[in-house]
Design a protein that fits this description.
Keywords: Cell wall, Cell wall biogenesis/degradation, Glycosidase, Hydrolase, Secreted, Signal. It holds the Pfam family Glyco_hydro_28. The longest helix is centred in the N-terminal third of the chain and has 24 residues. 12% of the residues lie in helices and 41% in strands. The protein has a 19-stranded parallel β-sheet that branches. The protein has a domain of 135 residues. The protein is mainly beta and 465 residues long. Bound molecules: 2-acetamido-2-deoxy-beta-D-glucopyranose (5 copies). The site of one 2-acetamido-2-deoxy-beta-D-glucopyranose (NAG) has 5 residues, from β18 and β20.
Length: 465
Amino acid sequence: MTFSWFFIMVFFLHFCFFFLVTQGRLNIHAEPNHLHIISRISFPPSPAPDEAAISPSYSAGPVHYTANFFNVRSFGAVGDGTRDDTQAFKMAWDTACEAEEPAVVLVPEGYSFMIQSTIFTGPCKSATTFQIDGTVMPPDGPKSWPKSYSKRQWLVFYRIDGMKMQGSGVIDGRGEKWWNLPCKPHKHGNNGTQNSGPCDSPAAIRFFLSSNLTVQGLIVKNSPQFHFRFDGCQNVHVESLTIKTPAYSPNTDGIHIENTNHVKIYNSLISNGDDCISIGAGSYNVDIRNITCGPSHGISIGSLGNHNSRACVSDITVSDSVIKTSNNGVRIKTWQGGSGAVSRVIFQNIQMDTVRNPIIVDQYYCLSKKCENQTSAVYVSNILYSNIKGTYDVRSAPVHFACSDSVPCTNLTLSHVELIPSKGKVVRDPVCWNAYGTMLTQIIPPVLCLLEGSPLTMRQSEVLC
Ligand SMILES: *[C@@H]1O[C@H](CO)[C@@H](O)[C@H](O)[C@H]1NC(C)=O
Ligand SMILES: *[C@@H]1O[C@H](CO)[C@@H](O)[C@H](O)[C@H]1NC(C)=O
Ligand SMILES: *[C@@H]1O[C@H](CO)[C@@H](O)[C@H](O)[C@H]1NC(C)=O
Ligand SMILES: *[C@@H]1O[C@H](CO)[C@@H](O)[C@H](O)[C@H]1NC(C)=O
Ligand SMILES: *[C@@H]1O[C@H](CO)[C@@H](O)[C@H](O)[C@H]1NC(C)=O
């Protein structure tokens, strides 16, 4: 065989291989415009297609074999932690989103992808999975954030029905430079003052007006602001997540939901600098189970009723969880002047470890300490605290029910609550103000300040939710 024949054979084999691979992927798509996108991306510059694009090597997660895989690297993402890979992610998403069968956007292990603030938009033709096995991160801090991009959000998933975000990878929000902005309470000793200056900081991952979402197994750390924000969503399942951010990071709520219903948050570890989970207005049917929080600010309903707004939150259950080294345990916080109601809330089987306010209702929530007293408030009722045990930090009373002057809390029920100091002397007097409720068992410490029965002034007609 002469040299030129050999060369031609090699070329031919190479071509066949390439053709089969491309063909295999193209068969999936029927529409011409998809053919165009894929063929444009699959051919040069690289002489051979990325192997991971054909046969993903990972085996984690219940990804079905029938799924189409769209590896961001085969769309041109570099993954060296420096190069801007936004366009490749967008193309991979758009292609997956247009696929007729369930599709997977694959972010492969062993690479670090730098992505600008991006909105991944649906609806998609079929269920879509974002499989993150590598690292994904934003530009490093406010100075590297393009001026024209929103500083309030980083990765946004918008109008999507049926999506999974999962994997063994890391989403690193690189928050440090945001936390150090002069407007933030300073991390080295918050003296209560806030300097002026731009303060917007991006939430790491926001799902907006979407439904049937699963987020599973990822590590999310160092978000500039909230780690997850679900806003206007339905049927959300968060499972086996790890959120890890320093206690000194301001405003870094772990999972925040608002106007969102049918939510399950299970089996996750959260340590951060603000609420571990926060539940905002318009949320109902939320089940939170087996969460370990701390250090954190605990699990909160609220804040609600800011700027005289109306807020309705109901049917919330928090159970089988641990809250440690936190300045709150289970909290309901509302501003004065709001309206609406928080009702049918169950906090049960919760272990507290060195928590400053293990059980707290605060209807005088105010950031500036200059809030005027007002006559309306969000009505808090039917709250059950059952089997809440452990230790508190004696700087505050372990049970604190500060209800509104004008709208008392009603039907607060305590059962099997046992809270003792982690060290130091017992705080004898729980705080109650305008709080109606009962103790079903002996409570430690006894909450003798609860008012019995129900207030005469309350009329059901006043409560509209
Ligand atoms: C409060 O902290 C800020 C930022 O650390 C600092 O600039 C300011 O001087 C401090 N104010 C007082 C009264 O200590
Ligand atoms: C979500 O999933 C449910 C069943 O799992 C399905 O009935 C529904 O159509 C899906 N989409 C929306 C928008 O709820
Ligand atoms: C609770 O969650 C942890 C992860 O945080 C997990 O390891 C453990 O198996 C879960 N427990 C149950 C009973 O599911
Ligand atoms: C608001 O009401 C509370 C409870 O009655 C009272 O302790 C507080 O002094 C009042 N604050 C103002 C600013 O009037
Ligand atoms: C009081 O709350 C409990 C649950 O915490 C509920 O079972 C009960 O029905 C409520 N009572 C009234 C009168 O609403």
